[in-house]
């Protein structure tokens, strides 16, 4: 039975029948090697699935820093910036350096970044999965001992550690808060695509709150948008209907931004109640203040790093999903009363 460990430079050398130094020369293109030997080395690399160590030169002089790779969908999203900050703070105590890359929600870019991090022989890998991705290719890496932790969303096609927020419970609580204020027509403005893990979980929480209150699901009150402008257009469309909502639940910070701006521009912010999932800068300074279900993205990052470090230290417990709690922060917008109150 073949070993499940990650193939090494020495394994390649043995397969070809040359020294490790010769293999290193081929991979780094820094020494005289015959064309035939180069071809045999490259063939062995492909056959074994060896990931060349791009930091080999630094290793030779003892200058290599241990690194951890983190792939996020959007570096410009404050949520993922805070996640990265939490990861970095936890790694710093162990002398590990964080490598950060953005997939732009592209499965292709995510795969390229993962391949680049593996080529650098990272000590651990953390990934916020792009929608529609498949992570079965990482089974071999995880089986060989590489800590793999998925962040904010579970991976697909692999059993691995994950750290997520309490998405379903947070959304249920936010919508229930609006219903308790007398609202019976509560709109949902979520993320796109609808298959996104966080969107699905938060929509389930929305439906659960409606069910618990004995309210029917009205699909005409559901809209998805991935940008603030699209969210603004969506809420205007919802409010222009024959039986408009009196409250809105926004399922992410970009949707909250767009809906808030649209309600302000149309002069109805003090008449349409609103609860947003995820906090925003200055959310407590606008009038009325934005009521939110606040995540703790920094803690999400800290937990992901803690798990990776435990795996590096030899923890062999079964993979598990860690859920980070969320909080309801009432600031005014979610407390606007419903009709007849």
How would you summarize what this structure contains?
This protein has 341 residues and is α/β, with parallel strands linked by helices. It has helices at 9-16, 20-28, 35-48, 56-60, 78-92, 107-119, 139-143, 167-180, 197-212, 228-239, 253-265, 297-312; strands at residues 67-72, 97-102, 124-127, 148-151, 161-165, 186-190, 222-224, 247-250, 273-277, 291-294, 321-324, 327-329.
Q: CATH class of the largest domain, please?
A: Alpha Beta
What's the SSE pattern? HHHHEHEHEHEEHEHEHEHEEHEE
Indicate the structural class: alpha/beta
Strand order of the largest sheet: 2-1-3-4-5-11
Number of helices: 12
Shape: elongated
Radius of gyration: 25 Å
Topology:
Blueprint: H1 9-16, H2 20-28, H3 35-48, H4 56-60, E1 67-72, H5 78-92, E2 97-102, H6 107-119, E3 124-127, H7 139-143, E4 148-151, E5 161-165, H8 167-180, E6 186-190, H9 197-212, E7 222-224, H10 228-239, E8 247-250, H11 253-265, E9 273-277, E10 291-294, H12 297-312, E11 321-324, E12 327-329
Parallel strand pairs: 1-2, 1-3, 3-4, 4-5, 5-11, 6-7, 6-8, 8-9, 9-10
Antiparallel strand pairs: 10-12
Helix pairs in contact: 1-2, 1-3, 5-12, 8-9, 10-11
């Amino acid at each position: 039975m073949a070993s499940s460990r990650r193939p090494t430079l020495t394994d390649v050398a043995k397969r070809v029948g040359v020294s490790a130094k010769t293999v290193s020369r081929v991979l780094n293109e820094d020494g005289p090697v015959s064309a035939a030997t180069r071809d045999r080395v490259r063939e062995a690399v492909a056959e074994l699935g060896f990931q060349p160590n791009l930091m080999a030169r630094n290793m030779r002089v003892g200058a290599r820093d241990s690194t951890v790779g983190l792939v996020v969908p959007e570096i410009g999203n404050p949520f993922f910036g805070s996640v990265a900050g939490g990861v970095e703070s936890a790694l710093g105590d162990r002398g590990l350096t964080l490598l950060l890359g953005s997939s732009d929600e592209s499965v292709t870019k995510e795969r390229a970044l993962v391949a680049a991090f593996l080529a650098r022989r990272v000590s651990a890998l953390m990934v916020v999965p792009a929608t529609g991705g498949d992570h079965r290719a990482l089974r071999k890496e995880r089986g060989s001992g590489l800590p793999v932790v998925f962040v904010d969303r579970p991976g697909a096609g692999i059993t691995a550690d994950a750290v997520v927020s309490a998405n379903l419970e947070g959304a249920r609580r936010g919508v229930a808060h609006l219903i308790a204020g007398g609202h019976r027509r509560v709109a949902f403005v979520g993320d796109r695509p609808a298959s996104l893990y966080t969107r699905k979980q938060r929509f389930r929480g929305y439906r659960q709150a409606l069910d618990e209150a004995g309210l029917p699901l009205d699909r005409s009150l559901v809209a998805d948008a991935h940008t603030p402008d699209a969210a603004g257009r969506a809420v205007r469309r919802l409010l222009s209907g024959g039986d408009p909502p009196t409250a809105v639940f926004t399922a992410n910070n970009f949707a909250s931004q767009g809906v808030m701006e649209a309600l302000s521009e149309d002069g109805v912010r003090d008449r349409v109640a609103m609860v947003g999932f995820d906090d925003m800068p200055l959310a407590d300074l606008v009038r009325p203040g934005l009521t939110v279900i606040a995540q703790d993205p920094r803690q999400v990052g800290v937990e992901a790093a803690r798990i990776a470090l435990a795996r590096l230290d030899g923890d062999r417990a079964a993979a598990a999903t860690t859920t980070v709690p969320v909080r309801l922060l009432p600031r005014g917008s979610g407390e606007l009363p419903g009709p007849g109150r």
